[in-house]
Amino acid sequence: MAFKLEHVHLKSRDPAKTAGFYIENFGATLIEATHGDTRFRLDLHGLTLNVTGFIDYQKREQRFGIEHLSLQTDDMDGALAKLQANGARLLEQLTVHIRGCDRRVCFVESPDGIQVELVEM
Predict the structure, then answer these.
(1) What is the rounded average pLDDT of the residues 33-61?
(2) Which pTM does this prediction carry?
(3) Which of 2, 18, 70, 73 could form a disulfide with 12 if both were Cys (CB 3.0 to 4.6 A apart)?
């Protein structure tokens, strides 16, 4: 039995703002917007992100957000400058030992408080 990541679904109080955050700051592209621009499907460099509010037909408990989404970058300084220019709040900067090397890691806050981790590779 094989498994492969299908998508990550972010539930947001403001789906349009959250989708825009990933488009503007990380180069995600819009695949589709539906239901009066309250549901978005984005391509984040090969990762599908679904961004919605609560879904009316969903019977199981719904919650906003995820703990964090981790993205690699080859230009931490450039990424942070762009994020901060676009209003993202820097939460933490540190150096972490990853795969045998010390790597710069930063956490920023996206709309609705979802944390995005950047790992410089």
Answers:
(1) 88
(2) 0.79
(3) 18
